[in-house]
Amino acid sequence: MKPITLVACLAVAFGLIGTASATDAPAVPSLGAVLAATPGLSVTGYVASSYTHFDTSVAGQRQFDLKTNGFTLNQASVTASYLPASGAGASVTLLGGEDASYLAASAPQFGVATAYAQYAAGALTMMAGRLPTLAGAEVVDPVADNEISRSLLFYDLEPIYHDGVRASYAVGDALTLTGGVSNGINYSSNGTSDSKLVELGASGAPSKQLSYSMAYYYAGTNSYYGGKPGKTGLFDFVGTYNATDALSLGLNIDLVSKDLAGSTEKANGYALYANYALNGQWMLSGRGEYLTDDNGLITGSPNKLKELTVALNYTPAKHLKLSAEVRQDKADNPLFADGASTTTKQNSFELMAAYSF
To answer: Are residues 171 and 51 in the same domain?
Structure first.
């Protein structure tokens, strides 16, 4: 056989084999098909970006609002979870963007927000890993909050997440009891601690109109509040009352005490929320806060802080949220940087767009 004929025959043979293999190979299932075939498995996420303007030179006393005047990719997040009502499961949330750098206190704009394994058996649920905090009315996810900026309580008084273990027991709809141990009062985002944190919680919804949650945290020597070593206690209360189908009211209280050598320093915060749904697409929200820091535990010197926020949320399409916010912060003593000086008042304006899936 001539060489060219042999090459031609081999080419035809391999072509036929390749054609037969491609025809007989099973189709690769899509991600949607895999999720649909696995009951209970979900993949969700969101992307949020904002524009922020301050009338002072530095934001100060604000969580995540890092730019005085400019645009920010705040967060890009994805959560994969399989949490059955009975048996073992897990959940992982990855977070990217400017907020991720802030939480991790490092340059990379990417990190693990929460990641935990879970086992549920009847009324008992056990969790281990990086867990979201029990405290506070607001969360890291901007889609779930009704204001763009986070509260003074969120920034100054409340932890964000904990590396540890937790167990909860549902007595009924009106009461779920929670207990856990983790690394310090805010180990993951505000430095290390040489003592463990104990958490206790109670939550429930006695009726359609009323829901509540309470949490108490106690930690030994740590470096969170004020950077001073000392035993720390935090009591947090959140209550929500749905007055009508359109109007909901909320209350968040934080009481912090820190035992130092021969003295006790305290800081207390109170936040009121009101949300009114104008229709299916528009919602008007308001928040007012008052924080007392008589010993300078939070701000470094004795002070009292107040803030008022008004936000308008618009949902023009499913999964798309557009928000606008005006806010004013005030302090009894100069706290906000304005060039080379400080001032007692700060005004801000923010716009945000968020898409969730």
So the answer is: yes
- Cα–Cα distance between 285 and 274 in angstroms, integer? 6
- Give per-residue pLDDT as tens, 33-91: 655 566 789 999 999 999 999 999 876 678 888 788 899 999 999 999 999 999 999 99
Where are any strands of DSSP class E within the chain? 41-54, 69-82, 87-96, 110-121, 124-132, 161-172, 175-182, 197-204, 210-219, 231-242, 247-260, 263-277, 282-293, 303-317, 320-331, 336-338, 341-343, 345-356
Domain count across the chain: 2
80/97 same-domain check: yes
- Which domain range does residue 22 map to? 1-37
- Do 136 and 239 share a domain, yes or no? yes
Cβ burial of 260 (10 Å; 0-12, 13-18, 19+) is: middle
Half-sphere exposure of 333 (CA within 13 A, CB side): 10
Same domain, yes or no, for 234 and 267?
A: yes
Query: CA torsion, points 168, 172, 173, 177, in degrees to nearest 10?
Result: -30
Give pLDDT tens digits for 236-290: 999 999 999 999 999 999 999 988 877 889 999 999 999 999 999 999 999 999 9
Q: What residue has token string 């992982």?
A: 92
Together in a domain, 53 and 1:
no
Residues 99 and 221 in one domain: yes
Residue matched to tokens 């949220």: 321
SS3 helix, strand, coil % of the chain, rounded to 5? 10, 55, 35
Q: What is the pLDDT of residues 337-356, one digit of tens each?
A: 888 889 999 999 999 999 99
Q: How much is the pTM?
A: 0.85
The answer to whether 211 and 230 have CB atoms below 8 angstroms apart is no
Burial of residue 335, with CB atoms counted within 10 A of its CB: 0-12 exposed, 13-18 middle, 19 or more buried: buried
The enclosing H or E element of 124 equals strand 124-132
Residue 56: CB atoms within 10 Å: 20
Task: Give the three-class secondary structure for 21.
Answer: helix
Q: Per-residue pLDDT for 107 more than 60?
A: no
